[in-house]
Write a structure and sequence with these properties.
Helix content: 10-25%
Number of strands: 17
Shape: globular
Oligomer: single chain
Length: 377
């Protein structure tokens, strides 16, 4: 059975309030369900003015004020907790290090793992709270044996289970997602917020990376890693142009390559490989992005480790679709082969496995295997 508020008794709930409409409605629903709710906004920057403003992030001073106003309307206590040091170490510095190593990280996923469901949950439990409530769209299911499973949201268009795939069973036991089984549109969530008198009802959703104030990821990385000119080459190693830092590229990127002359076939080129060792970016045709298999490290399971190899579906991006895979755990690593080749898979991204709607677990892509080129008839 679905168990987003898994108890017949009132729980002491800590509601993480970002200042957006989803977390405000989630906190309101938890309070309306009879739980003893306390709101908390996470201060994630020692200098909040440096974070994105204009209601586009989730960590600004404006967001903190919006969260406080929402808590006042709901009628719950509200606090601001300073987790700036943890956020800098576990999310921002990790983000920089991953790009420096030629990988493409997902900082929102890392924030969920290290901040919202590690640092925050640990502190909440130490203070006597039973659960942490967020505005994520996902569903927790209580099994007959008392264990819990993470499932996709009822509305696939809003499903956020991909960025929650890092949660283990212990964390799921203390996680509430009151919006997860909502078969309503975002407009209806906004209408509910307005009916509740929440001023965030019309606030735009957050976008981009909250700690990059102007949205310029390449400029942010250059400011911390320094510019380092290197070569852009084709698959044969022939030099096509130069760049100011391999960290400014991601696998599958097409725009911004600044190559001086077109390919012989006149088709666009894409980033195929990033080598931080020699600061080289390799580009080529879109077909060369096809991947048939991958190895992923640091798996985290939403329950027990899969006992045997099996067929699953996998999601490779936060807003990507599903693809069928065969997966097995070998020496602590996840080995995955695709039924059909997939395109543009980058080391550093997360792969999340699903069994139907159930989230099996998440792992970080380490290496990929190129698909064999199609043979012409």
């Amino acid at each position: 059975m679905t168990e987003n508020l898994p108890s017949t008794r009132p729980l002491r709930v800590l509601a993480a309030m970002s200042g957006g409409v989803d977390s405000a409605v989630a906190a309101a629903r938890a309070a309306e369900a009879g739980h003893e709710v306390t709101g908390v906004h996470l201060a994630l920057s020692a200098n909040p003015q440096s974070f994105r403003t204009g209601a586009r992030g989730c960590c600004t001073i404006e967001d903190s004020r919006d969260a406080r106003r929402a808590a006042d309307v709901i009628g719950i206590p509200f606090y601001v907790w300073d987790l700036a040091d943890r956020f800098r170490e576990d999310v921002v510095e990790d983000f920089i290090a991953e790009y420096e190593a030629g990988r493409t990280p997902n900082p929102c996923l890392r924030c969920n793992e290290k901040i919202k469901f590690a640092a925050l949950l640990d502190k909440a439990l130490a203070l006597g709270f039973d659960a942490v409530c967020t505005g994520h769209y996902a569903t927790v299911v209580l099994k007959e044996d008392g264990g819990r499973e993470l499932h996709r949201a009822s509305d696939m268009a809003k499903d956020q289970s991909y960025v929650l795939g890092v949660l283990d069973e212990k964390q799921l036991a203390h996680a509430l997602f009151p919006l997860g089984d909502t078969l309503t549109t975002k407009e209806e969530i906004r209408a509910e917020a307005e009916a509740r008198g929440l001023a965030v009802a019309k606030k735009p959703d957050s976008h981009d990376i909250c700690f990059i104030a102007d949205g310029d990821t390449q400029g942010f990385l250059a400011g911390r890693l320094g510019k380092a000119e290197g070569d852009i080459v084709d698959e044969s190693g022939a030099k096509l142009g130069t760049h100011e830092g391999a960290f400014g590229f991601t696998i599958g990127q097409r725009k911004g390559l600044r190559i001086g002359h077109p390919a012989a076939d006149g088709k666009p080129r894409y980033v195929l490989d990033i080598s931080p060792v020699n600061n080289t970016v390799t580009v080529g045709p879109v077909e060369a992005l096809d991947v048939s298999a991958l190895t992923a490290i640091r798996p985290r399971w939403c329950g027990s480790t899969p006992a045997a190899p099996g067929t699953y579906t996998a999601q490779l991006r936060a807003h990507g679709g599903e693809t069928e895979v065969f997966a097995e755990v070998v020496d602590g690593e996840l080995r995955v082969s695709f039924t059909e080749p997939v395109r543009g898979v980058a080391p550093g991204q997360a792969i999340v496995l699903y069994d139907g709607t159930r989230v099996v677990g998440s792992a970080t892509i380490a290496t990929t295997a190129k698909a064999a080129p199609a043979v012409s008839a």
